[in-house]
Request: fold
Amino acid sequence: MLTQVPIRSLAAIQSRKPTSDRAAPVRDPLEVFDLMGSPMTYGANEEIYGEDEPAEFVYKVVSGAVRTYKTLTDGRRQIGAFYLPGDIFGLDVGKQHRFCAEAIGKAVVRIVRRSAVVSLAERDCEAARELWTFTARELYRVQEHMLLLVKSAQQRVACFLLEMSERLADANTVELPMSRQDIADYLGLTIETVSRTMSQLVSESAIDLPSSRHIVLRNRGALRHLNA
Amino acid sequence: MLTQVPIRSLAAIQSRKPTSDRAAPVRDPLEVFDLMGSPMTYGANEEIYGEDEPAEFVYKVVSGAVRTYKTLTDGRRQIGAFYLPGDIFGLDVGKQHRFCAEAIGKAVVRIVRRSAVVSLAERDCEAARELWTFTARELYRVQEHMLLLVKSAQQRVACFLLEMSERLADANTVELPMSRQDIADYLGLTIETVSRTMSQLVSESAIDLPSSRHIVLRNRGALRHLNA
DNA sequence: CGGCGGCTTGATCGGTCTCAAGTACGGTGG
DNA sequence: CCACCGTACTTGAGACCGATCAAGCCGCCG
Reply:
C-alpha cells in the first residue's frame, strides 16, 4: 500500500503536466519522466504498489533497484523482474497491476500519471508506437525469463550473472543489489541451491566471490558455455 | 522456410490492400484479416515460419492449431504457445520472429503483410492502440506461462487442462489437438510425467480419459484446487 | 563482546527424469 | 474383414537433481 509521503509530490506532477504539455508537446511518452515526474524515495523493502492495485502511475528508477513479484498460492514468491536505474516499470496495459513492486534497498524513482502517458498516445501515433515498443521489450524479457525457468540450476545462475553484468555494465565486476533470496525467487530455485551453485562456479574458476554481493566474472566464456 | 505456394495468394492480398484502404479505412489492424488475407493450408508438422526468419507476415488461425517453439541449446524443445482458431500469431515487434511456428495437424491460416499492419498504425492512433493491446495480451499470456513453469507437475497439467477447456469452450469435454510430446514441451515436463499425471488425475476422478486426446473434466474444482 | 540476519555447507528426502517394456490405436495391404 | 505394422501413449524401476531440514559461519551494528 502506498504511504502518505508520495501524495505531495504527485500533486506537484499534476500541476506541472499541463504546462509542459502546452509548452513543448512530448512525443516520446517515456520521455515525460525527464520533463515531469518528481523523485520519490522508498526505503528498503518498501512497497511501491500492490498486486491488483489500480495502475494509476508509471515509474522510472533513478537510483537503487526494484523488484516486482507475485505471491503464489503455496506461499512461495516469484519475482517477475528486477528494475535498475533508467528502467521503467508499472506500465501495465490493464487497469490493475499484475505484480507487486517493492524497493530492494533504498531507491529513488520518478512517477508520472498513467493517464498522462496513455492520453498522449491517443493523440500522437508516434507516442503510441513508443508504448507498443516498450511493451514488446517487456514481452521479450518475459520470454527470456520463461526460457530460463526450464534450464538447470547452473544454467539459470550463469544466465542471471551474465544478464546482471550486462545491465550493470561494470566491466567484469558486478555489485548485486539484491539478496540470495531475491535471486532464488527470480530463478525459481531455493536460496541453498543458488548459494551452492555460486560456490561451484567459484571452484570452477568461472567467477570470484570477494563478498556475497560482489561478483567478479572471471570466465564469461565458461558461463556462456554452460548453456551448451 | 516458406514454400512457394503462399506467394501467389500474397500477391492477391497486396493488390487488394489499397482498394480496401481507400474504400473503407480499416481502424482495427487485426480486422484486416477478415477483409484481406487469403486462406493458406498447411499440413501436419509443416513449418509456417522459422526462428530468426524475417517477420514479413502476420497470421490468423482459421482452423486447426499452431505451435510456436524454440529449440534449446541442449536439444530440447520449448513450446511458447498454442494458437487456436481465431488467434493471431507471428506479430513480433522486431524484424525477426523469435520463435518458430508449425501447424500441429492440418491447419488453415489467413496471412497479411506485417508492413500493412504496421503502416496502418502509423496513420491511425486507434490502430496503434489496438496493436499495443494485442502485444499486452501476449505479455499477459507469457507471464502466466512463466508462472506455470515454477509449479509442480500436477499443477502444470491441471492448469493446462483448464486453460484448454476455456479456450476450446466445449463445456466439460476437451478435444486436444496436440500430442503428449507437445504438451510436455509446453509445460517443461517429459512426456512420461504428463502421461503419469493424467492417469493420476483419472484415478482421483478429476478427469475422464475416454481416449488419449479426448478429455472430460469431471471435477473442475479439484483441478483448480491443486493450485493451493 | 554478543546477537542477529544473511549466507554457506552438509545430510537426507522426494519429485521428476531416464531408461525400458508393454499396450492401444489408426492406417495399410492382403 | 482381418493381419500387420508403426506411432503414440502408458506404465514400471531406478537414478539424479534440487528441495528440505539442520548446523555452522561471517559480517555488521549495537
